[in-house]
Amino acid sequence: MALVVQKYGGSSIADGERISSVARRIAKARDAGNEVVVVVSAMGDSTDELIKLAHQVSAQPSDRELDLLLSTGEVVSGTLLAMALETLGYRAVSLSGAQAGIETDSRYSRARILRVAPKRIMSELARGNIVIVAGFQGVTSEMDIATLGRGGSDTTAVALAVSLEAKECQIYTDVEGVYTADPRIVPEATKLKKVGYEEMLELASYGAKVIHPRAVELGSLHNVSILVASSFVDCPGTIICKEASMEVRNKVSGIVHDTNVAKVTVIGVPDHPGIATAIFEPLANADISVDTIVQNASIEKIADLTFTVTR
Asked: Phi, psi (5° rounding) for residue 237?
């Protein structure tokens, strides 16, 4: 019996009707003879609503309390999906990230997964249950809840696929796969049947929002095939897998754009040792990721330095 990990994003489970539809899709995978582990995001925009609510009662909520609050969104999704599956006649159990054995560091709102101890998940699978895991979260060594940041549910799904040695990690979203360009902007864009990890990592890093770069990176590290497909229509998606050999793979797989980028130019930068550290170290300390860096030719040991950051 093969084991598959499926992940459903917020738009796929935005209301009761969509949750029931997802339950039917999961049931098909179970009927096909698979053991199924499902990772869920929070419903619709509920994470944003929880953040808004937190700031209504506190101008500066503590990181610990905010993470604990935000983790409830995925727990709600998981329990409702388990109920929907039980209504269809399937045994299902929902688990929080902590119950599923997802251990993280203590960097609230941007935690990293240290390890996955899937004993509870394997035990539930052995009982014949479909296992629903709340994505986006884990537990620290101090038994506090920490969230993984935006896109954390994708990372959760791939991490579970790695630890459970799953046949495949399936990411279901509101798009039908990975396209050569954004079809909303370029109507002639075509869907890719396959794309390599490195190419997908570049596409995801520069604006393709179908899957988070951290999930692609983790899949590449452990050679886990990732399917990106639509939860709304039954059609083939895109497989993210090991690259083809250099001579046969496409020179260009796709074009992406990102409007959420700011360009910063520092004018009149002295050309002497240590100046780059003085500029970029404060950004690193604030956890601000710098992307493209361009420096013009130095004239009389003075230059302009331009770089981009996420807005």
From this structure: -100, -150
